[in-house]
Design goal:
By secondary structure, the chain is an alpha+beta fold. It is built from 8 helices and 9 strands. The protein has one domain: Glutaredoxin (3-Layer(aba) Sandwich), CATH 3.40.30.10. Helix 1 packs antiparallel against helix 8 and helix 3 crosses helix 6.
C-alpha cells in the first residue's frame, strides 16, 4: 500500500510531461495571475498595437516562429480548425499569433499568415520589433527556446490564455489543439473554472523533483504518525 501514493505522483508527472512535448515547460507558479508587459506589436498590415489594446475580451497568445518546419504549422492549423468547429462569436475573443524569434519581421509573419490562411477578423498575426520587449514578454509567460540549428528551434508547444484585463489565467499544451481545449481555456479566461482545473494548472508542470519530494514528504509524515 505504501507504493500507491508514489505511483500516483509518478503518474501525474508522466501525464504532465507528455502534454508539454518539446522544450522547457513554463513555471506556472510564476506566471499564472501575472500580467505580461504592455509591449508593442506590428501586425501583418503594418499597424502598431499594444497588448493593452486587446483588453475587454479574452486573448489566446500563440507564440510561434514563421520558419518552423513542423510544430508551429500544426499548432496554427489545429487552432484554426478547432475554432471553426466551435463557431464562437469572433467579437468575444482575440487570437494573437506572434513570432518568438527576434530575427523574424513583417515579411516573415505576412508569409506565414498567407500560407496558412489565418485570416479571421479576430486573429492578429504579428511580431515584436523591439528585441528587449520581446524577451520581456517571453519571460513573463516563461516561454524558453533554444537554437537546434540556424533554422530549427526547440520550444514548448502551448497556448496562453489572458483574461479581459490581460492577466495570464491558463495554459494549454500540445500540438494538435482540440475544440475542448480552446473552449476550456476561454472559459477559464472568463473566470469560469472548476476546482480541479484550478489545481491541475499548478500540479502538472511542477516536475519530477517536486512530485517525488511531495510524495516522499506525505509518506514520511504518514509513517511518523504510526
Amino acid at each position: 500500500m505504501r507504493a500507491l501514493p508514489l505511483a500516483g505522483y509518478l503518474l501525474s508527472f508522466a501525464l504532465g510531461c507528455s502534454a508539454f512535448g518539446q522544450g522547457v515547460p513554463p513555471n506556472l507558479a510564476k506566471t499564472l495571475g501575472a500580467t505580461p508587459p504592455d509591449v508593442k506589436f506590428i501586425d501583418t498590415q503594418g499597424r502598431a498595437f499594444k497588448l493593452s489594446d486587446l483588453k475587454g475580451k479574452p486573448v489566446i497568445l500563440s507564440p510561434i516562429y514563421a520558419g518552423c518546419p513542423s510544430a508551429c504549422i500544426v499548432i496554427s492549423r489545429s487552432v484554426k480548425k478547432a475554432l471553426s468547429e466551435l463557431n464562437l462569436d469572433p467579437e468575444t475573443y482575440t487570437v494573437l499569433t506572434f513570432s518568438f524569434d527576434p530575427k523574424e519581421d513583417l515579411a516573415d509573419m505576412k508569409g506565414f499568415q498567407q500560407k496558412h490562411q489565418l485570416n479571421a477578423s479576430n486573429w492578429r498575426v504579428a511580431y515584436v520589433p523591439d528585441d528587449d520587449a520581446l524577451f520581456q514578454l517571453l519571460d513573463a509567460i516563461d516561454f524558453r527556446f533554444t537554437y537546434v540549428s540556424e533554422i530549427v528551434k526547440d520550444h514548448p508547444n502551448l497556448l496562453v490564455f489572458l483574461d479581459s484585463e490581460g492577466v495570464i489565467r491558463h495554459y494549454e499544451f500540445g500540438l494538435e489543439f482540440t475544440p475542448a481545449q480552446l473552449q476550456r481555456g476561454l472559459r477559464i479566461a472568463r473566470g469560469q473554472y472548476t476546482l480541479w482545473e484550478r489545481v491541475s494548472d499548478w500540479i502538472f508542470p511542477v516536475g519530477a523533483v517536486g512530485m517525488l519530494a511531495t510524495g516522499a514528504w506525505l509518506m514520511l509524515g504518514a509513517r511518523r504518525k504510526r
